[in-house]
Structures are given as structure tokens and as C-alpha cells.
């Protein structure tokens, strides 16, 4: 506590310093080192290659890449803004970007020479627009995108006598769960070897769950949990996106879908909150790896994680991918999210930083990233290379991820202001519904709380 | 009888010297404690996000605090934690200290008692998080092996606070025992000799001699550990992040999350002032009730 107060005390001075708009380094020597931060260790080698290419083309300029894990990343960044140790350029996330724009720590890219001509049309549709603030200025240059699909263990599917091809066209509905629920019920096996759809199934002693879980989804609008279902039921989180100010958690379609979704845990087809480790969830990849789950929703950024899974003996596990199930709307759905590079107002060399951002948003770097096969670059050419890499090097068909974009069945990550407050309010309430401490109808009062945030800020 | 003059001279010298010796501590106190505390109290009356200047809002934060159910729940959860933590820790520490004094004189054995304290809170929390993991933790595998049901120690709302309390007892009990042990050393051996002469048993001597004479030290230990216990943070941050739902959202974690997660430094400061008031009241009461400033040894 003392430290917190001391920190708070020393802050106003420092914050004042960070505001100068002078571009000192650029006008002086031009021999700067650009600090760049990212959180995904899987992407660091690819971006190191980009950095090397950038240094070769810009004599005197160097990029220093630092990688921190997701949680540490954001607290370090916040501390960096306060203590003037923030990087010049950092990988930004849609869930965080609005907050930073509000705090005034992001530099509009339009105001910098190198990045002023970034063209929305160069990227997958809709990605670039997401990074424009309410003031219409661009705060991030698109680097990659992601969608959701189901990863499954082919061995478990074969054991259940299920044809893998049938997984490509599953349907669900909030009444009986459709062919999706039938499939995961059959993939579920209890301690006695009885399957979830057979008589005598013991839902309290399950050996293998048909469907894995990534928690209650309060932190990211159910991105890897329920968003594929609420989305294919036709639900939208806010009145408009981006910059919605009214929330739709009180709508029956949302509450019915969640009641059905979390009901899967009560039926014994999906592990409970406690079983996946509560607030420290082990993640769907480890659930599939350990045999706790046969199939699970996860994001395209995890493709390389899944293809590198091994069993206890160290042998690589086979992995299959199937698209999200088709919902009551007659279509499938996936959240469409993207990362971007942002320049901080604390950067002493914004015009140099902009050159690096411009390079990362360009075809050369995005093709390098595409060929590393870790994520889907924002440019269509980079995306094509990533698809090719997975097909040829991993023997993996990743079209369940890309089809969502091509067939326009995606919906965008809800971008709003007050994002930190929304997350803080949502996590405990969503957890309570997952655990079974509160009914889905309790989300109506959560919705009122969220709406109130905007009335107060109004 | 000495003359008055030299005494006066010495006093004048003392003052200068005293100031010299006190200065480092005083500067530290003012810079790192008094000023930040005053600044924190000021910030509690503002709306402040760290990056833009604070904005005076009067009592708004305090009104919000009184109406915030999560704050009151956090206070309740914290008190629940403190009660379990302190009761268990003090009882165990007292037992260990008495055994250290009455049963063994071996230094290495006394040293071993202190070892958990050498492990940092974060490391201890991480290790227990792994040991107690529902699926993979060795703790739960042992439970399953002896035929008991697995327990979601850190993911079940009924278990989290007791579990976190016990983790911190494990880490702090040795240190607390050492403090109490130091207090035991101040009790003259002659008291026990007299007790033995009168044919008192170990248990009677503990009740009639050890406990009463240990009271001032025990009171001090209690005040220190209770204040420390109210400030529980790192174990919660590592193991549960306040969950499930709000069942382990202790006050310090709520304050931290409000400040560094939600950028509401004004409201976080107000809650810090609330915690300060709670601690001052509790410490004052403890001090009075345990008569910590007087000893029965005279």
C-alpha cells in the first residue's frame, strides 16, 4: 500500500514529461534503437526476422524486441506509461486499445509521415477500421487476425466411431443442442467406460469430456468459450460496434444460449469450473493433451501450440480442426479479432517508430510472418502463405478458420470504452453462472451495471 | 553532587547528535510514509487515472465505497481470512515456541522451523497452486489414492480462503514462533524451578507461568501479525485472483485491481484510507485489551 501511494505521488511529475510532442531523436542523429514489445513468444522469431530485414533497409536503425507473458505484459506496459519506460511501439489488443486511447497514451498514426498512408483496403475486410478511435484517428496498424474453430483429438473421435467428416457440419440449438450436443455426449466417457449418451452414464465421474472449457469467458466476451454460439444465434454484445454504449446481456437469446452452454457442464459433457483450475484455467490445449477433453473451441493463434502437443511419452499428438457449429441463425459464426501495432506518446522518436510500424504492416514483413505459420497476417497475401505453410509443413487444413472470413460469418470483437471496468464487472458474474451460484437471469443486473458505466461517463 | 553547568552542556550536545541520528529515519519517514499517506488521502477525494491530472470530486469516492457491495464483501472476506490465519498461526507458533524452549536446545532444529519463511510469498503460492491443482496436483492425487474425493482447494468458493490462510500459516508460523520464543527467553528459569519445587506439571506451568508472563510479547506479536494479515495480497494474486466470483477478493486485491487494472486511483485511494482506519481501530483495541504496554514480570 505504501508503495502504491508513493508511486501515485511520484507520478504526476513523470506523466507531465511524457506529453511533449517533440521528435528529438529523429531530428538529431537518426541512429536510434526502437523498443518493440510483444506477448506471444511463438511470434518472436518471425518478428526478429522482420526486425533484421528492417535494420538492413534502414541503416542506423535497430529494433529491440522484448517479450513478456500476457498478464505481465499489460501491467508492465501500464507501469511503463506511468514511469516513462514504455516502449516506442507495442503489440496492441482490441480489448485494451480503447482504454489506452482514452488515457491519451497512443499516438495517432495519421499524424506521422511513414504511417499516414496506411490503406484500409490492403487488409482483410474490417480489420483496419477497428483501430480507429472515436475521434476517427488511426491508433493501430493491422498486423494479424484470428478466428475460432474446434480442435479435436482424432483418436478419441475414432474410438467413439464418429466419422471426422461429420464434425465439419455440426449444428446446435438452445433447446436440444442439435447434432453438436449429440456428438459431444457420445465423445464423453465416464470412469466405467460408459458414454455420455448411454444408459447408466455417471456424470459425476467423467474420464473424458466431449467438450473442453476455457473458463466462463468474462474477460474477452466469451471469445474462446460461448461467443461462437451466441454469435450463431444472431446475438450482438452491443448496440453498435465499435463504440457501443448499450449492452445486450439482458436479451433472451443471449441468456438462453448461455443457459444451454453452461448446462453442458451440468450434464457432464464439459468440465466444471473447479476441474479446469478455477481462475487459473489450464486451457483447452492441455485438456486435449491430457485426455480430459476430446474436442474444444480455441483460437487460430493456438494452431502451432496444438500441432506441437505431445503425449506423456513425448510422441507428437495428431490434431484435427473443425469449424464452429451452425446455429439457429442457419450460419456458423466466429469472433473476428485482430492485433495491431501502436506507437506510444512517450516515444522519443515517433517518426522512426512509425517507419518500423509501417514495415510491419507492409507485405514483406507480413509474408515473413505468414511463412512462420504462427498467426494469420492481416494482408490477404500473408494469410495465403500461412494457409499454405500449415497445409505443406504440418499437413493441417486450417480452412475452418479462414472460411469464416471468406464466407463472411464473422462478427467483430466488441470494442468499447471503459473496457477495464467491463472486464472487472463481467469476470465474477460470468464465473458465478458457470459455477452454478447464479442463474443466467442474473446477467440482466450485470447488463444494467454495464449500461450505467456509460451513463456516468456520459 | 555535580554542578549544573556540565549537565546542561551535555544536554545541548545530545540534541544536535540526536537530530543527526534521527535525521535519516525522519527523512525516510517523511518522504516514504508521511507524504505518500497525505497524498493518498488527498487523492481519495479526487478522480484520478494516473496519466491525467486529478480532478477534485469531494466525498464521491467515500459515498461510492459505502454503497459498494463488493467493498463490504471484500472487508468480510478479509476479516474471515484474518481470523483463520491468526488463530491457527498463533496457536501453532506458541506450541512450537514452547517446544523449542522446553524440549530442545539444538540450533539446527530451531533453524529448520524458520525455513518456510525464507521462501518468498510468490514462490510459496505458486508451489501450493501446483500441489493443490485439481487434476494434476500431487495433493489431490494423494487424496484420490487414499480413496477420498478430490478437492478444488483453490477453485471452490468454500475452500479458497481457508486454503490461502493455511498456505500463509505454513510460511509465517516459523517466524512467529521465533518471536514468541524470544519472549519465552525473558521468563526467568527460576520461575519454572519454583514451579517444579511445588510439584506443578508442564501443563500447569504453561498456563500459570508461561502464558501470563508472555502476555506483552504475545500482544506485540498479535498486533504485528494481524496488521500483516489484513494486508494479504500476493498469495491471492497468484492463486485465485479474487475468485471464484468474489470469494477470495480480499480488500488489498480489490484495491490493487481498482487502481492498476481499472485506472481508478481515486477510488482505490479512498478504499486504502478505509483500510487504514480499520487497522488503526483494530490495533488500538488490541493494544488496550491486551495491556501490551505493561508486564506482569516485576
TrEMBL record, chain A:
Pfam families: SBP_bac_1 (PF01547). GO terms for molecular function: maltose binding. GO terms for biological process: maltodextrin transmembrane transport; maltose transport. Keywords: Signal, Sugar transport, Transport. GO terms for cellular component: ATP-binding cassette (ABC) transporter complex, substrate-binding subunit-containing. Belongs to the bacterial solute-binding protein 1 family. This is Multiple sugar transport system substrate-binding protein.
UniProtKB/TrEMBL annotation, chain B:
Residues 75-286 form the ABC transmembrane type-1 domain. GO terms for biological process: transmembrane transport. It is found in: Cell membrane. The keyword Protease does not apply. GO terms for cellular component: plasma membrane. The keyword Transmembrane applies. The chain crosses the membrane at residues 17-38, 79-100, 112-131, 151-170, 213-233, 265-285. Keywords: Cell membrane, Membrane, Sugar transport, Transmembrane, Transmembrane helix, Transport. It is a multi-pass membrane protein. Pfam families: BPD_transp_1. InterPro entries: ABC_transporter_permease (IPR051393), MetI-like (IPR000515), MetI-like_sf (IPR035906). Belongs to the binding-protein-dependent transport system permease family. This is Multiple sugar transport system permease protein. It comes from Paractinoplanes atraurantiacus.
Amino acid at each position: 500500500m505504501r508503495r502504491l501511494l508513493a508511486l501515485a505521488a511520484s507520478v504526476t511529475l513523470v506523466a507531465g514529461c511524457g506529453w511533449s510532442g517533440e521528435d528529438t531523436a529523429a531530428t538529431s542523429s537518426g541512429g536510434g534503437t526502437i523498443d518493440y514489445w510483444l506477448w506471444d513468444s511463438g511470434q518472436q522469431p518471425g518478428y526478429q526476422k522482420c526486425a533484421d530485414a528492417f535494420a538492413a533497409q534502414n541503416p542506423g536503425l535497430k529494433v529491440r524486441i522484448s517479450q513478456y507473458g500476457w498478464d505481465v505484459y499489460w501491467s508492465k506496459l501500464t507501469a511503463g506509461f506511468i514511469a516513462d519506460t514504455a516502449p516506442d511501439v507495442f503489440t496492441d489488443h482490441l480489448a485494451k486499445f480503447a482504454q489506452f486511447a482514452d488515457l491519451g497514451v497512443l499516438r495517432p498514426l495519421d499524424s506521422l509521415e511513414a504511417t499516414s498512408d496506411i490503406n484500409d483496403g490492403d487488409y482483410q475486410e474490417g480489420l483496419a477500421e477497428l483501430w480507429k478511435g472515436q475521434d476517427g484517428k488511426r491508433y493501430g496498424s493491422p498486423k494479424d487476425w484470428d478466428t475460432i474453430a474446434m480442435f479435436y483429438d482424432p483418436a478419441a473421435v475414432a474410438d467413439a466411431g464418429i466419422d471426422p467428416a461429420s464434425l465439419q457440419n455440426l449444428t446446435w440449438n438452445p433447446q436440444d443442442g442439435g447434432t453438436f450436443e449429440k456428438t459431444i455426449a457420445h465423445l464423453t466417457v465416464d470412469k466405467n467406460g460408459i458414454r455420455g449418451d448411454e444408459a447408466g452414464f455417471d456424470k459425476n465421474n467423467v474420464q473424458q469430456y466431449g467438450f473442453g472449457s476455457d473458463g466462463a469467458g468474462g474477460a474477452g466476451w466469451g471469445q474462446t468459450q460461448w461467443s461462437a454460439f451466441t454469435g450463431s444465434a444472431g446475438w450482438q454484445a452491443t448496440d453498435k460496434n465499435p463504440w457501443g454504449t448499450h449492452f445486450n446481456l439482458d436479451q433472451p437469446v443471449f441468456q438462453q444460449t448461455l443457459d444451454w452452454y453452461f448446462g453442458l457442464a451440468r450434464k457432464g459433457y464439459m468440465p466444471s469450473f473447479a476441474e479446469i483450475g478455477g481462475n487459473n484455467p489450464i486451457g483447452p490445449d492441455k485438456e486435449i493433451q491430457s485426455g480430459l477433453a476430446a474436442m474444444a473451441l480455441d483460437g487460430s493463434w493456438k494452431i502451432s501450440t496444438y500441432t506441437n502437443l505431445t503425449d506423456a511419452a513425448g510422441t507428437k499428438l495428431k490434431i484435427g480442426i473443425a469449424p464452429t457449429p451452425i446455429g439457429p441463425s442457419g450460419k456458423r459464426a466466429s469472433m473476428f479479432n485482430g492485433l495491431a501495432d501502436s506507437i506510444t506518446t512517450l516515444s522519443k522518436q515517433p517518426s522512426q517508430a512509425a517507419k518500423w510500424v509501417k514495415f510491419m504492416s507492409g507485405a514483406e514483413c507480413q509474408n515473413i510472418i505468414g511463412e512462420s505459420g504462427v498467426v494469420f497476417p492481416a494482408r490477404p497475401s500473408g494469410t495465403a502463405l500461412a494457409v499454405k505453410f500449415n497445409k505443406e509443413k504440418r499437413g493441417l487444413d486450417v480452412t475452418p478458420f479462414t472460411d469464416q472470413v471468406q464466407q463472411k460469418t464473422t462478427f467483430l470483437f466488441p470494442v468499447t470504452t471503459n473496457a477495464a471496468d467491463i472486464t472487472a464487472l463481467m469476470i465474477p458474474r460470468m464465473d458465478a453462472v458457470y459455477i452454478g451460484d447464479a442463474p443466467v437471469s442474473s446477467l440482466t443486473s450485470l447488463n444494467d451495471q454495464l449500461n450505467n458505466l456509460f451513463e456516468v461517463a456520459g | 553532587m555535580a554542578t549544573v553547568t556540565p549537565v546542561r552542556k551535555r544536554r545541548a550536545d545530545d540534541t544536535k547528535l540526536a537530530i543527526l541520528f534521527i535525521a535519516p529515519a525522519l527523512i525516510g519517514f517523511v518522504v516514504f510514509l508521511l507524504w505518500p499517506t497525505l497524498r493518498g488521502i488527498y487523492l481519495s477525494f479526487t478522480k484520478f487515472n494516473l496519466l491525467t491530472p486529478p480532478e477534485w470530486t469531494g466525498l464521491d469516492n467515500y459515498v461510492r465505497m459505502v454503497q459498494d457491495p463488493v467493498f463490504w464483501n471484500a472487508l468480510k472476506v478479509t476479516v474471515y481470512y484474518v481470523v483463520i490465519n491468526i488463530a491457527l498461526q498463533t496457536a501453532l507458533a506458541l506450541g512450537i515456541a514452547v517446544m523449542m524452549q522446553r524440549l530442545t536446545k539444538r540450533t539446527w532444529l530451531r533453524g529448520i522451523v524458520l525455513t518456510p519463511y525464507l521462501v518468498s510469498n510468490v514462490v510459496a503460492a505458486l508451489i501450493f497452486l501446483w500441489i493443490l491443482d485439481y487434476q494434476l496436483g500431487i495433493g489431490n492425487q494423494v487424496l484420490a489414492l487414499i480413496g477420498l474425493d478430490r478437492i478444488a482447494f483453490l477453485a471452490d468458493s468454500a475452500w479458497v480462503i481457508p486454503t490461502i490462510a493455511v498456505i500463509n500459516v505454513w510460511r509465517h508460523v516459523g517466524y512467529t514462533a521465533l518471536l514468541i520464543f524470544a519472549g519465552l527467553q525473558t521468563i526467568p528459569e527460576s520461575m519454572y524451578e519454583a514451579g517444579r519445587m511445588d510439584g506443578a506439571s508442564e501443563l500447569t506451568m504453561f498456563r500459570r507461568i508461561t502464558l501470563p508472563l508472555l502476555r506483552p510479547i504475545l500482544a506485540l506479536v498479535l498486533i504485528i501479525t494481524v496488521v500483516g494479515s489484513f494486508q494479504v495480497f500476493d498469495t491471492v494474486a497468484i492463486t485465485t485472483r479474487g475468485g471464484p466470483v468474489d470469494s477470495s477478493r480480499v480488500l488489498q486485491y480489490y484495491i490493487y485491481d481498482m487502481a492498476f487494472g481499472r485506472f481508478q486511483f481515486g477510488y482505490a485511494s479512498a478504499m486504502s484510507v478505509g483500510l487504514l482506519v480499520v487497522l488503526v481501530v483494530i490495533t488500538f483495541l488490541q493494544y488496550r485489551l491486551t495491556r501490551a504496554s505493561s508486564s506482569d514480570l516485576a
